[in-house]
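P.,

For your records, the input lines for the assembly:
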Amino acid sequence: MKGFRLRYLIVGLALIGLVNAIILASVAWNRQPPAQSQLLLSERELGSTHTYWRKDNSSLALRLDYRWPSQADNQQYGLSISAEKMAALGFQVPAQVSEAAVSRYRRQLDREALLVLELDGPAYQREVALQRAAHAEALRLQASVPDSKELQDAAKNAGNALEYEQQRASRLLVVDVGADQQALRARYPDRQRYAIVRGIVEARVGSVVSEWTGEGQDPRPQSQRVTWLLGGSASTPGLYSLDLPRRWHAAFDSLPQQDELSGMDYPADQPRFTANVAFGRRLEPWFVEVSVPTTKVQ
Amino acid sequence: MPSLNRSDAQQRADDIGVFNRELARLEAEQVLCLSDSQRANLQEYQQQLLDRYRAAFDIDHDTQTRQLSLGMRIASFLGALTLAASVFFLFYQFWGFFSTAGQVAVLLTASIASFGLTLWVRHRDGAGYFSKLAALVAFTCFVLNIVMLGQVFNITPSANALLPWALYALLLAYACGTRLLLAVGLSCLLAFFAMRIGSWDGIYWLGFAQRPESFIAPALLIFVLPLWLDQRRFDGFALIYRVSGLLGVFLPVLLLAHWGDGSYFDFPPEYIESAYQFAGFILAALVIWLGVRREWPDTVTTGLTFFVLFLYSKLFDWWWQSMPKYLFFLMLGLCAVLILLVLRRLRSRHGLLGGAQ
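Structure tokens returned:
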């Protein structure tokens, strides 16, 4: 009986030790220099996770905020990834689009993929340019009909959107999706600007009902009225919550929360904090350095 | 008592009680009369046997102790759940106050200490109420160990954690005779293998939940496992294997019988649903037959339950819209009566569920 217990003890301790050793070894391997990429982010790209059980949870985690580039025609119905790219990722994209083919396409399971995130690069500059153009157009329209309250509001909203884009919106945008890490890195070699992260791609379908321009009631069958748009979207569950080590908790806690910022005057060009985030060999991120500027105007 | 477990010992003790009561009746009716020496020998033998069982398994020797045991089992289960929850929140409450190295040390120490404590309590606690409680806390510590290391180092979520959880739960279950942890371990194992099947060829691992067929092959394996690995020394373990395996087969079949889109097969959903409805009835009938043949009441009950579920869901599909509600429920009631009649016939013929014992 004693030997029996000893056997359980040895097996249990071996299991606990082995599992912890494997995890810690994989972490060490991930963090071995050089890092796959290293980005200098600010509060624009790192949001608080706002844990609803904050009083029962003393840890602190930040969420990596990134976004997809605006669609040029604003007609893509949330399809961030094109059908061609979906086919390259291993999804079966039908050559002939019919209702049955769309249904078969939609029921495909999510696939693992790699996302390329670009920091403050051409994709972000394009977003600023789009907002600037929208603001200029709104001002032009307002000037053409100066008494219109509606156009005044539209111009004000466009101005706010431009200011948000220039000063507070995330500068981190998804610029590519692929399955081959080496090929993506060859295409985006700047490791201070482009991070490759793990993601999950989901097949999605949008539909557009074409308007009937003829006389009387629309005689077309349903299949001819609807145009199907095939594509996909991606998410990154590994980046929803990045643990902030304790040595930066105090500095971080001293920062005003987002809802307190309206009553304060922060210099627009000065970030509330900067964080150097590295992505290792397993593409898992960690904080290398977090700094809070000392010059704060109240 | 090499292959005797607590259930066997309790059964023997109960049989002794029944035997003594019947003996008293027979003596009162003057059908049988033992001599004084025979009576003394019998009582001495029975007493020795019961003392040995009490020492080894802490069995209940009368109705009162049995009721108290039930209360202790419930208290042990609730205590284990609440202690596990307490450990969970304790970690999070003070988590942020440790450095990264401190967090790793705390997690590892908690796992090792709770495991050691469980084995120590098991050594001292013959009945197992406290060791089962400690085992669940140890399992919680190990789960937190892996989950929180993942959080601290921002490790990409993966289903690989299910394998060590399964192995650890099974280890604790066998060390402490805990059926709850056996069920937890088998569930983790089932999910792990279903995930390995489902994540083939670049599919994201959580996709396995959208294809219930991934569960069927590993569940069948779990069902037949006690036929190869003798579980008689472990009280009720074979039952847990069989029921877990059957649930792992029946639940996906039931789901697919109403959700053809969830299948791997690229056929119209209505064909798939019909095929699984048919397969569900056949499978349930086979399981009932097997349970009767092998004298596994748990298997018969599970098969019956799913047979009734398949039948009622099919009747719902056929008649709920077309029939007046009173007629629909009348049909369900008549079906229940029919099932009762069939079961009674089986019971009298084959001694199903102890009918001819």
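Two observations worth noting. Chain A touches chain B through 46 residues (CB under 8 Å). Chain A has eight helices and ten strands.

Regards
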